[in-house]
Design a protein that fits this description.
The complex is a heterodimer. By secondary structure, chain A is of the alpha/beta class. Chain A folds into three domains: 102 residues; 124 residues, Rossmann fold (3-Layer(aba) Sandwich), CATH 3.40.50.2300; 193 residues, Nucleotide cyclase, GGDEF domain (Alpha-Beta Plaits, 2-Layer Sandwich), CATH 3.30.70. In chain A, 51% of the residues lie in helices and 19% in strands. Chain A has 15 helices and 13 strands. By secondary structure, chain B is an alpha/beta fold. Chain B has one domain: 3-Layer(aba) Sandwich (Rossmann fold). Chain B has a five-stranded parallel beta sheet with strand order 2-1-3-4-5, with helices on both faces. The longest helix of chain B is centred in the first third of the chain and has 13 residues. The radius of gyration of chain B is 13 Å and the shape is globular. Classes of the chains: A alpha/beta, B alpha/beta. The interface between A and B is medium-sized, with 37 and 28 residues.
Chain lengths: 483, 125
């Protein structure tokens, strides 16, 4: 970006350029007399002088820094030439002496030229990582200097493409973006920053060379956080950078907090997701106080299912067939159990132990358990059709339901624990299941008492259970009655 | 040219000046390696272990002040002397160069004999 005001050439430049043209005429005349290194140094000197001439002529683009660099090169080569020429320097030596005097004058003049006003105020700010994007080197240097002095780390980019590359590589706190650049202009860079989810939160301060308020408004609508007009006040620049860094830090903290929450949620989903339906996990996440992970005595309905004669069956099949058949069966059953919000406690071979009512208690735990069992039996037709198609034997399963108080909680050692259940009713369920025929659902009296839906029940049977004195009364469930 | 001379790392983005100084330093018996920005300079300081660094302060990518501060924070690079090449004869520039951890400074256009004396003193050990 060039400043609008063009300045008259500095007074020293006339003397200097005169000395240069003097030297050039001499060089052309006496070129052949010079040997290798000398000739080369003289060529380089003249090359530097040409660069300086262009810089001085280009008054619209007054770069003090570039001119100083050219002066330095001229001086260096002139001094080297003098050293090499020694005392026997002749007219070339005289010309070099005049040139060096002119360089000195130029240097002194420019040194006494008005320096930028000293900083009146220093804005204390947390140091930040600033990306300054400008196609003009002197502007980048200026910004880098201002901001480095206040302790910021500054990286610069000379084009929009370079800026985007830097953003991809580093974690930038604030972007200082010149709007007028060739190729990819500032507006395009801004658009790309704001459409990238990873960069979106990085504050962008746009810099406009003209007082183009409409352009600035468009940028702010496009997501720019702040703006500056050139030439900008260093104190204002620092104040805006400070605000930008604070905004970024605030966002970073928020992001960290969000990630922490996400990790917690992931942990809970990973811990329970295999046993619980998404619905229950979500319920736990939304109301974590409802979940007591410590040992907790609670009334649950327990469901145990088992494939009849599976052990015998598996002996007749190859191991791969057994696993394929089992996985298909368990997969289907798991889906049904999840759909009824049952908690799968464990798979024991072909048996599935499921609990309704923990970790989340619901009023229809027993009813859901019964509907789940009916759905599981109904699904057997489909499973068997698949088995027949695959040349595998048909399966039949027995399901037992029982309701009672168990201890629910994280059970195990410190290294390995799982949410599980212990208690006598678990064993009783397993014993009832032993009495089930293929395709049968047996439900204990304690569960029947909890049902609020209507079902067609079979005759009451008393089962004598090993380990308990009293017999257990069970009934066969035929179907749900929709009345 | 000699390979025995101390290695000086010249960090200067202006080609004219870089070429000129390289030539002068080589003539004075130094082995010169160059970098065009602060980041390159830090990398070369670590890999080439120069005896001394001449660092322009206004550099692209990473400026000289930042590069100096980083070098001073780095245990491996801390001991390599750095002479700042400042563009202006302004006190503020010199002070900020010294504050950033430069051992000395030279103002452009450089008084070469004076600079040479400084370099020789610092690389004497």
């Amino acid at each position: 970006m060039s400043t609008d005001s063009s300045q008259p050439p500095a007074p020293w430049s006339q003397v200097l350029l005169h000395a240069v043209s003097d030297l050039r005429i001499l060089a052309e005349a006496g070129d052949k007399g010079l040997e290798g290194a000398l000739r080369e140094d003289l060529q380089r000197l003249l090359q530097a002088a040409t660069t300086l001439e262009h810089q001085v002529a280009d008054t619209a683009n007054d770069s003090h820094h570039d001119q100083m660099n050219s002066l330095a090169a001229i001086r260096g080569y002139a001094e080297m030439l003098q050293e090499d020429l020694g005392t026997d320097s002749g007219s070339l030596g005289d010309s070099l002496t005049r040139l060096l005097q002119a360089v000195d004058t130029a240097h002194n003049d420019s040194a006494t030229a008005p320096a930028p006003a000293p900083q009146q105020r220093n804005i204390a700010s947390e140091p930040g990582f600033i990306l300054a994007v400008d196609d003009l080197q002197e502007n980048r240097e200026l910004v880098a200097r201002y901001l480095s002095r206040s302790g910021h780390l500054v990286v610069t980019a000379a084009s929009g493409e370079e800026a985007l590359r830097t953003l991809a590589d580093t974690d930038v706190d604030v972007v200082l973006l010149d709007l007028m650049m060739p190729d990819m202009d500032g507006r395009e860079v801004l658009r790309r920053i704001k459409e990238n989810p990873e960069w979106r939160a990085t504050p962008v301060i746009v810099i406009s060379g003209s007082q183009d308020m409409d352009g600035i408004i468009a940028c702010i609508e496009a997501g720019a956080d702040d703006y500056l007009f050139k030439p900008f006040n260093p104190v204002l620049l620092q104040a805006r950078i400070k605000a930008g860094i604070e905004r970024k830090r605030w966002h970073d903290r928020e992001e960290q907090y969000r990630q922490q929450l996400e990790r917690n949620e992931k942990f809970i989903r990973a811990t329970f997701g295999r046993y619980l339906s998404d619905e229950i996990v979500t319920e736990i996440l939304e109301r974590p106080e409802g979940l007591e992970l410590g040992g907790d005595l609670r009334e649950v309905t327990i469901m145990m299912s088992d494939i009849r004669g599976f052990t015998t069956l598996s002996e007749q099949l190859g191991p791969q067939q057994v696993v394929a058949m089992l996985n298909r069966y368990l997969g289907t059953m798991t889906e049904i159990i999840m759909a009824h919000n049952g908690t799968i406690d464990e798979f024991i071979g072909d048996a599935i132990l499921t609990v309704f009512g923990a970790p989340q208690r619901r009023n229809d735990d027993a009813d859901r358990a019964v509907r789940c069992a009916l759905a599981m039996q109904a699904a057997m037709d489909g499973i068997n059709a698949d088995n027949r198609a695959a040349g595998l034997p048909e399966l039949s399963t027995g399901i037992a339901l029982n309701t009672g108080s168990v201890i629910a909680g994280n059970i195990g050692s410190e290294r390995r624990s799982k949410y599980g259940f212990v208690g006598h009713p678990m064993n009783v369920t397993s014993r009832i299941e032993d009495h089930c025929q293929g395709g049968e659902i047996l439900i204990s009296e304690s569960t029947v008492k909890k049902l609020s839906g209507h079902y067609t029940l079979g005759e009451r049977r008393d089962l004598s259970i090993r380990g308990i004195e009293q017999s257990v009364t069970v009934q066969r469930i035929e179907e749900a009655r929709h009345d | 040219m000699t390979d025995r001379g101390p290695v000086v790392l010249l960090v200067e983005d202006n080609e004219l000046n870089c070429e000129m100084l390289t030539r002068r330093l080589t003539r004075a018996g130094f082995k010169v390696i160059t970098a065009a920005d602060g980041a390159q300079a830090l990398a070369l300081m670590a890999s080439a272990r120069p005896a001394l660094v001449l660092m322009d302060m206004n550099l692209p990518v990473m400026d000289g002040w930042t590069a100096c501060r980083r070098a001073r924070e780095d245990e491996q690079l801390r001991d390599i002397p750095i002479i700042a090449l400042t563009a202006h004869a302004m006190d503020a520039d010199r002070r900020s160069a010294l504050a950033a951890g430069c051992d000395d400074y030279a103002t452009k256009p450089i008084d070469f004999p004076e600079l040479l004396a400084k370099i020789r003193r610092m690389t004497a050990s």
